[in-house]
Amino acid sequence: MPAIASIDGGAASWNPNTPAGQTTNQAVVITGTNFLSTSVVWVDSPCDSLGLREALSSVLSGPNQIVATIPIGCAGTYSIAVSNPAPGGGLSGAAPLVVGSMSVAMLSDDKSVTGVKYAFASAPQSGFTVEVE
User: Fold this and answer.
1) Greatest CA span in the chain, whole angstroms?
2) What CA–CA distances, in Å, run from 37 to 19, 42, 82?
3) Which one, out of 28, 29, 73, 101, has a CA that is 20 to 30 A from the CA of 54?
4) pLDDT digits over 4-52, tens only?
5) Residue 51: strand, helix, or coil
6) What are the domain boundaries of the chain?
């Protein structure tokens, strides 16, 4: 049976200005034991009550590591589990992935925005600058 030791979601965050029903794909690195090339990652989203659903992809990147792509649809705690097929398979215990809400720093006196960690698709309004760290 697989067992999860840790989950790394990188800089997973949710933009609260994203239209309802839209998701973003997030790579998640899962470290643990008893992973197989046929292992499947499952995710339970805090956005709804549908329960576990299969990740968009599950790729074994080493005997103790899987890289999965999961849909992020809101801020909150996502439950991640890994399953192996029978015989001898089973579902691991769930491990949490906390996705925070993205925030943008307030405008300073010189009308510049600092502390932004994400690029935006729309062009900024004239009269201020965006600094990406």
Assistant:
1) 64
2) 36, 15, 12
3) 101
4) 999 999 888 888 888 888 889 999 999 999 999 999 999 999 999 999 9
5) coil
6) 3-101, 103-133
